[in-house]
User: What shape does this take?
Amino acid sequence: MTAISSDFPSAPALPKWIAPVLLLAFAYGVVPLIGSSYLFEAILLPFLALSLAGVGLNILTGYAGQVSLGSAAFMAAGAFAAYNFNLRVEGLPLIGSIVLAGLAAAAIGIVFGLPSLRLRGFYLAVSTLAAQFFVQWALTKFSWFSNDSASGVIDAPRLSIAGFALDGAIGRYLFALTIVAILTFLAHRLVSSQTGRNFIAIRDNETAARIIGIPVLKTKLLAFAISSFIIGVAGVIWAFAYLRTVEPAGFDLDRSFQILFIIIIGGLASMRGAFFGAALIVVFPLALSRLGGFLLGDLFDSGVLDMSQRIVLGALIILFLILEPDGLVALWDRVRRRLLFAWQST
Amino acid sequence: MPLPSYTLGVIEASAYAPEVFARGLPSSLWSEQQSEGRVEPTGSVAAVASPLLSLQGIGLSFGGVVALADVDLSVRPGEIRAIIGPNGAGKSSLINVISGVYRPDRGHVLLDGVSYAQVPTQRLAHLGVARTFQNLALFKGLSVLDNVASGLAYKVRSNFAGQVLGIGRSRGEQRDSLSRADQVLEFLDLTAVRDRLAGTLPYGLQKRVELARALVAQPRLLLLDEPMAGMTASEKSEMAVFVRAARDRFATTVVLIEHDVGVVMGLSDRIAVLDYGRKIADATPDEVRNDQRVIDAYLGVASDNEDGAGI
Ligand SMILES: Nc1ncnc2c1ncn2[C@@H]1O[C@H](COP(=O)(O)OP(=O)(O)O)[C@@H](O)[C@H]1O
Ligand SMILES: [Mg+2]
Assistant: This one.
């Protein structure tokens, strides 16, 4: 019989929920007290929105194995749907608008997920570009979506929940944090359920999945729907809490790629991966601009910044794909294990 | 029918009824099965049994390549039926036809008396048919336990919302599939690797996990495409023991492709021999061993056929 042994030194005995709970306690209890408005406006709000979008795309791509380049379209769909529900449905609470916006994004996700029933891999990725271009085109073309505003740029409604105004930086941060925490928790439950196992089964071997009776078509469309729902809500956070304007321009193909990079760098098929990747994507340009400004002074203008950002990011992605295909999460776990091991053996 | 009390209907009815599981489903069924005596497939009782699976005039070609030509096959309940033949003889194609992965150009597949031009793959598990693949087809990113539990996915009726919120029938289903998966893991001596990712296991163990995933649904018909390919001699005999035990305990009918003639002769009740897509023999091991056409076509060159290619 083949020898069976564990590859790793014994894992820490702490239960798995400890780390997220501590992190949440910190995010709710400590961060609002010590954070500057720069931290909220420039770092934490985009981080939260992009993390959630990463969680959504990870369900589709990381777990169910369906590559998509349409994430920004689903964000846009969510943001504009929430804006219009809020505008046009009398007396609908904000939460209602957000849920309906998620459902609208899910419906669009199902439509643009239909090609996945016939296409896979590269061809599917290209077909999801259709979503990207179509949604952006429709939102620009039909001014009804922007309530006929001349510029196409509209102010997001002020955030409030149960009459409680949340329009300060901290309020918007708590608003985003709460939605991200809830949806991430539900997503985590999903991927460890039978449905989540079906996602992975279809990703790893579609024929075998069909043979054992997993409803392949239904499961793929479900992955598109759930993923688009979450990405749509991420779009609401992006527009309502972070930018406080709703406009199609920010939801372009670059954004779709950015979200794909987030889950590749962070780690596919991992909830934590989306947060790791989003943190890197958000903090990295800021750090680069500080560093560049420090080293090169005035030479380091926004053009140079933009260019160097793309170059370094591109290099990073290639490095990750080659050296650490499982992303920052795997890197983190390995470092942690080493440290723990070193600590235990002293 | 020579299969007392063990029909798919019984399994379906008992699925996820906790009181049935409380009795310990497999063990109670297994002992029941054994106390009533296992079907003796080559005996006189089986001779009158209607076939569980029969193929009638199956023809299949790929472009100019004839994979199967006018193949008939009849498999009785409880039988272990081997299919042997040189590489490219059409063995895998035959299993792909039975499981609906391929649609034959001609002929019909009868499962339990129902005739299909193409077996509906999506309903295969509901029809009580499970299979393994010549090349590993595990879900690499799932643990061994989850791989095996996924073999019960076809009967899950809770929806994703119920599963996320842990309400409705989802809890019972989850518990039952995991406990049934655990029982099969124990049966196949895989408990030690229960929580490992399937993709990280050595080849021989992955083959066995695939058998476990097929067995967990307690299929009436089990199709095994080279379950022992690439194994060491001791792994092979271990696997042979498991296949026989699966048949004996679950009363499963087995169709088995295997290159190792020694293993096949000892394990199977009947052997069908394919050569260039045609069935050239279909008899008991002893008869096949002495069949001149088989010796010419296959047995003489058996040692060249260790590693089959294809699906
Ligand atoms: N999907 C396929 N496409 C094209 N040719 C195939 C396919 N499957 C099988 N064949 C051909 O059919 C013949 C029988 O193959 P196969 O059933 O895999 O044989 P075996 O399993 O006995 O080695 C071979 O010539 C093979 O090349
Ligand atoms: Mg083969």
